[in-house]
Design a protein that fits this description.
Number of helices: 4
Strand order of the largest sheet: 1-2-3-4-5
Number of strands: 5
Number of domains: 1
Helix content: 25-40%
Strand content: 15-25%
Distance between the termini: 56 Å
Length: 118
């Protein structure tokens, strides 16, 4: 039972860390699904230089989809459908560095703003 509580705590910390960083850094570009019109399929929407990125942070992974898959595919390794998922651990504690790769890639994308508008 103790390990189950520890696993749940690590998953909640992963979700909180990842979303918290995005909220602090990009509060003016991050929207909850309830605030989006037209409605979106994921929990959040991040406005980026590559277009809208919808995402949901689950217990052990981050599901994302680009609205403009063609443009996003030039700068990311997303699929032709726009899916760009980040899968971590499923039966273990989520390490503190989980989500860092996703956030680092978001940082690089957000820095493209000046390049794409020139």
């Amino acid at each position: 039972m103790r390990s189950k509580k520890k696993l749940e705590a690590s998953r909640l910390a992963f979700q909180s860390r990842t979303l918290g960083y995005l909220q602090r850094k990009y509060s003016d570009k991050l929207f909850a699904a309830a605030d989006c019109s037209p409605p979106i399929s994921y929990e959040y929407l991040l406005k980026t230089p590559l277009g809208d990125l919808q995402f949901t942070i689950y217990d052990t992974w981050i599901a994302t989809r680009w609205a403009n898959a063609s443009l996003a595919n030039i700068y990311t390794d997303c699929s032709n459908s726009g899916k760009w998922n980040f899968v971590y651990y499923s039966h273990e504690e989520i390490p503190e560095e989980a989500g860092v790769e996703f956030l680092m890639k978001i940082e690089k994308i957000m820095k493209l703003e000046g390049e794409l508008t020139q």
